[in-house]
Design a protein that fits this description.
27% helix; Cytidine Deaminase, domain 2
């Protein structure tokens, strides 16, 4: 059985009727991310967020999340990572704390969503774009020249590396390629934003940011939140197997990113090009 999966007994129906079989499902569990903030001689444990994720690479996920939300700037701010003890069974192994060096100041208000709701316009996306542009850690340098033939080969490479997806059909992936189409890193998770956080968290830990000379490929659709996270990591070229949303394309235009959608073996759409 693949790591990140759980086996269940199910009933499968066909035209011949029901049969019993075993099926593998992707594991989904909550992860509570906390910050250990030093205050004088004491350390304060501050809850930051809870995300539903596939267990594995939790440190990368937490660091990637905190970086893309503008809470952390570099890994030198971090002393250690620890799993906290928990009383309730569901919480065991799912409480992760990032301990910060003394003197590191964090602005927890940055974790608030950058959407503004009014009676006249509902959710105002433009306010979100402006907020992201102000907090992005890197300016986007969009000078990559990508061969279309190379680009169309990437989904097949991604699919071959998605071991949990092949077992369950229920997980997303985010991957980084170089300009020649060589796979450099890949992460899987039940949440597409978590997969990207894990990918960026890996780069954060290894001093590889900004990722300006990489191609980011995501499974499924490309939403605003993924473009927002990519902008924080300095990514200039994003491709998606599925469709982008309107707000994702608007943010990419504002940031100077190239967005490719519906990437298949024989075709793709270019939504922004610079």
């Amino acid at each position: 059985m693949k790591k990140g999966t759980q086996q269940f007994n199910i009933s499968n129906w066909t035209s011949d009727g029901f049969t019993s079989k075993e099926d593998q499902l992707v594991v989904e569990e909550p992860l509570e991310i906390r910050l250990g903030i030093s205050s004088g001689k004491t350390q304060i444990s501050t809850p930051v967020a809870v995300t539903m994720r596939t267990p594995g690479a939790d440190e990368k996920l937490a660091l990637g999340f905190l970086f893309t939300e503008g809470i952390l700037k570099n890994k030198e701010e971090v002393i250690s990572t620890e799993i906290l003890p928990a009383r309730e069974e569901m919480a065991k192994g799912n409480l992760l704390q990032i301990n910060l060096k003394a003197g590191v100041k964090v602005d927890l208000k940055k974790l608030q969503r950058n959407f503004y709701t009014t009676s006249s316009c509902g959710v105002c996306g433009k306010a979100s774009i402006e907020a992201v542009m102000k907090t992005s850690s890197f300016s986007i340098k969009n000078d990559l020249k990508i061969n279309g033939e190379i680009l169309t080969q990437l989904p097949k490479i991604l699919e071959k590396q998605q071991s949990v997806f092949q077992a369950t059909g229920g997980i997303h992936a985010a991957a980084l390629f170089d300009v020649n189409g060589n796979l450099e890193s890949i992460e899987e998770d039940v949440g597409r934003h978590n997969a990207l956080d894990k990918l960026i968290g890996h780069a954060f830990l290894n001093d590889e940011l900004p990722l300006s000379n990489k191609i980011l490929l995501v499974s499924g659709r490309l939403g605003f939140e993924l473009v927002q996270k990519a902008a924080m990591a300095g990514i200039s070229f994003i491709a998606a197997v599925g469709a982008p949303t309107s707000l994702a394309v608007e943010l990419a235009q504002e940031s100077g990113m190239t967005v490719v959608g519906f990437l298949k073996e024989d075709r793709f759409n270019v939504y922004t090009s610079f």
